[in-house]
Amino acid sequence: MTATVGELLQAKGHVVADGAMGTQLFAVGLSAGDPPEAWNVHHAEEVRAIHRAYLRAGADLVVTNSFGGTSFRLALHGFDDRVVELNEAAARNARIEAGAEAERTGRPRLVAGSMGPTGELLEPMGNMSAAACEAAFAEQASGLAGGGADLLWIETMSDLDEVEAAVRGARSACDLPVAATMSFDTAGRTMMGVTGSELADRLGGLGLAAMGANCGNNVADTEAAVTAIAAASAGTPVISKPNAGVPVWSGDSLVYDGTPEVLAAHAHRARTAGVAVIGSCCGSTPAHTAKIAAVLRGDEPPPDIESAPPAAPATEDRLARRRTRRHRS
């Protein structure tokens, strides 16, 4: 049993998206530097268990474990010849769990095929051509479609040109709906300087299933961005998937400081501002999804937690340092 984003919105008024995949994989044994996408084949049950936990927590939509699934990213691990295989497996793992949960509850669940940035810069700033970029996303989209994804989920982008190339590549490979989100992590802008209103203006005419923001520097900056996108959107559903706060040291490990209550309070404010698809990103858990779902259903009152103010605008020097760090990573 499946549906589209639009059909789910028509039925219930909002869509609850899932939370983090990467931090959940680290919790069950993924080592730093290893490609999470390989786990779709070699540790499929662990991946499926994460999807299952989010679905049981109330997610209507789960995002596949394929964020770094383009040939550009997989080449860093010598896996650029396994793009279709690993993406098919990612979608298949999510499809199995979404199908089981839909059968159990009698309500459809969506599988969104994650397509993250290539990690390269387009010409003339970098060496990647638009044609090579499109081809990489087309190959990934082919795998995700073959594995049973319901839509393609272009996410955590910084450059509008790369988003558009990804959309073109995806649509050349299959006829699945496409959603896109960008990461607002530089004082309310993406690494490449894009604002929420600019995203809405540029992407609003592409016929996307949804558009918005994910990840980001903090909840406040993501919230400001999606509020701006919702205000400027001419009918395209808006997505918000912020990180669970910011990472802070706790002993010898990094943890995210955003509790389930913090993200549920954000979800309530975002929904009031017109955001339709709401979940969470890095550092979040099924407990965050459960709290978001309960508040959006009206089963629990929204937590009395105010939004922090967005970060102050960055100087050009700070922007340059941030871009350098991101490119190196």
Mind sketching the topology for me?
Blueprint (H helix, E strand, L loop, with lengths): L4 H8 L2 E2 L5 H6 L11 H4 L1 H14 L3 E3 L7 H4 L8 H23 L4 E6 L14 H18 L3 E7 L2 H14 L4 E5 L13 H8 L6 E6 L3 H14 L5 E5 L4 E4 L2 E4 L3 H13 L4 E2 L7 H12 L18 H13 L1
Parallel strand pairs: 1-10, 2-3, 3-4, 4-5, 5-6, 6-7, 7-10
Antiparallel strand pairs: 8-9
What does this structure look like?
- The chain is of the alpha/beta class and 329 residues long.
- It is 46% helix and 13% strand.
- It has helices at residues 5-12, 22-27, 39-42, 44-57, 71-74, 83-105, 130-147, 160-173, 196-203, 219-232, 260-272, 286-297, 316-328; strands spanning 15-16, 61-63, 110-115, 151-157, 178-182, 210-215, 238-242, 247-250, 253-256, 277-278.
- A hairpin with a 2-residue loop joins strand 8 (247-250) and strand 9.
- Helix 9 (196-203) crosses helix 10.
- The radius of gyration is 18 Å and the shape is globular.
- The model is unreliable at 314-329 (pLDDT under 50).
